[in-house]
């Protein structure tokens, strides 16, 4: 049975304890912690009944960088999110792919190779610790890799991992809800938009057909977390 989770995105910069109380009061079953400032130092007591998923750091890292020092540091940052997941007894770590910088455009294929190598290394580290790594599809922006769902499915098959479907990201790339459903999906992010900008609006404020998406996920046997990842409470 699918469970409802809430990302800390909407509640930043409140202290984590207040976030967890708010999420529990909503009746949600899970909290997704975005593991970077102000939550880069996380302490969770067992006074909360919530389960956890972890979103690896997003800012200031690039796991596909052609600069080896930057890439290795980025991998270590993602691995620190895996360590947090172990502490929280979570088996889901959401990972953003790398990006193609302005001067990296001629080397996109090489950057994509670096991205896959980094994801493979992170996945191996996580597997050794009993945690799953779930690469996420990106919205319609210049730079990020894995904007096309077909590329995401390919990574899933290449590495033998499940992935995070961000439905709102996929909508900005022109995918229908039917096209978003795949046996590769092991985690889901939900927010709304009009198909133009990844605006992280409340469900129902945009044009995504969530009923069709949920029906499709049920039909595919999805039993994971549906994480609401909106911009405000």
Protein described:
Helix 2 runs parallel beside helix 3. Strand 7, helix 7 and strand 8 form a beta-alpha-beta unit. The radius of gyration is 17 Å and the shape is globular. The relative contact order is 0.14. It has a domain of 160 residues: TIM Barrel (Alpha-Beta Barrel). With 233 residues, it is of the alpha/beta class. It contains seven helices and eight strands, in the order E-H-E-E-H-E-H-E-H-E-H-H-E-H-E.
Strand order of the largest sheet: 5-4-3-2-1-8-7-6
Order of helices and strands: EHEEHEHEHEHHEHE
CATH topology of the domain at 3-162: TIM Barrel
Average pLDDT metric: 96
The proportion of residues forming helix, as a percent range, comes to 25-40%
CATH class of the domain at 3-162: Alpha Beta
Secondary-structure content class: alpha/beta
Number of helices: 7
Unreliable residue runs: none
What quaternary form is this?
single chain
Number of strands: 8
Largest sheet: 8 strands, parallel
Shape: globular
Corresponding CATH architecture of the domain at 3-162: Alpha-Beta Barrel
Strand content: 15-25%
Radius of gyration: 17 Å
CATH homologous group name of the domain at 3-162? Divalent-metal-dependent TIM barrel enzymes
Question: Descriptors for this entry?
Answer:
233 residues, alpha/beta, TIM Barrel, eight-stranded parallel sheet, 7 helices, 16% strand, IolE/XylAMocC-like
């Amino acid at each position: 049975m699918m469970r409802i989770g809430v990302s800390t995105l909407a509640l930043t910069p409140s202290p984590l304890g207040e976030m967890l109380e708010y999420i529990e009061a909503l009746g949600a079953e899970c909290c997704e912690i975005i593991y970077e400032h102000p939550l880069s130092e996380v302490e969770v007591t067992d006074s909360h009944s919530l389960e956890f998923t972890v979103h690896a750091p997003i800012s200031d890292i690039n796991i596909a960088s052609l600069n080896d020092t930057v890439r290795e540091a980025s991998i270590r940052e993602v691995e620190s999110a895996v360590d947090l997941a172990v502490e929280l007894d979570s088996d889901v770590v959401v990972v953003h792919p790398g990006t193609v910088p302005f001067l990296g455009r001629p080397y996109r294929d090489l950057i994509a190779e670096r991205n896959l190598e980094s994801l493979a290394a992170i996945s191996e580290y996580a597997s050794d610790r009993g945690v799953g790594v779930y690469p996420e599809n990106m919205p319609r922006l210049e730079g990020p890799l894995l904007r096309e769902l077909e590329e995401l499915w390919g990574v899933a098959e290449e590495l033998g991992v499940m992935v995070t479907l961000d439905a709102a990201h996929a909508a900005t790339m022109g995918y229908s809800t039917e096209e978003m459903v795949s046996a590769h999906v092991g985690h889901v992010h939900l927010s709304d938009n009009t198909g133009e900008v990844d605006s992280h609006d409340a469900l129902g404020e945009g044009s995504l057909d969530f009923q069709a998406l949920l029906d499709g996920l049920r039909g595919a046997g999805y039993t994971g977390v549906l994480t609401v990842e909106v911009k405000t409470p």
